[in-house]
Amino acid sequence: MSVRFEQVPLVGAGTGPAEDVDAWLASAAVHALVEAFAVTPDDRALLDALATGKGTAGERLSALDGFSDRWDTRKGLERNQAPELELSIEQEELALEAATALGLRGGARLRFDHYDHVLVLGGLIRACLVRPAYAAHLIGTGRIDAGSVTGLGGHRPFVGDEFQLAVEAGAPELKEEYEAMDFGMRRAFGLSEPESVEGEVSELPGGTWGVRHYRTGEGVKVHVVAAPSSEPGTRRANTPDSYDFFARHVAQLSAGQRLLMVTTPIYVPAQHTAAIRMLALPYGVEVDTVGNEPGAVPGAPVTDFSATKYLLEVRSTVRALRQLTESF
Length: 328
Hints:
The protein is of the alpha/beta class. The protein has 11 helices and 7 strands.
């Protein structure tokens, strides 16, 4: 089986967010994914709606969200703990090709050579090491210059193989994401002690927050942030919470500023969509999101994602698009 799909632009890269969502839903890659996993009459109805544009974008996204439940192997687990789906060879190949077309396997481009703010997005420990290194690479090689750089982490305890990865990184003392992001940013940008530290400790699951303020030898401001949750009694902060906290507490964003999100390619569509909703639309800023390029930073580990992992992040993209559509 050999299938190739036309590249689908990220939301915000076309006529407008609403039109871009419609184009995403109408894409051959999305239609083929649904067709490959369709079983029930409701699945067939979804295929028809995607092909004909029947119903609102919100209704199609809601149906697609429900459809994507069959790809959810996390069930509340961290990504490195989620089991694999039992897929046919054809489904695996199709998932990889669709992921390529939907922007989960690289291809995002830098539109500008100056960004007012570069945001390094957190995650599992490998991300907290690789993404700061890639952001420093972009700046250090002159591909971009930045007014400030912010690492967005969270108070999430390590799970699974993260403890061993911390040992291999030479930092066995690390036990959580925020500390890992701080370690990754200090190592990537050659930082010493913070100029100032602020924060608040709470007994609520998502109530604790903190910010460490640094400055590079060249004078660039660097922040490492663990944002509070918008639902502190229920869960820890997520990516939209981090964006919102950054915009209000750290940056005081103003219209026309340029922001660059640095992440891993597989997460680009979902995290970019959240940035459009939380930053571009309310603050009138320009947002780009790029994934680290494998091999760009010598010694940086390269992750080879499975078809299951790509399907999980297509599901994350659907959910991010659904939230975006609800904000129109």
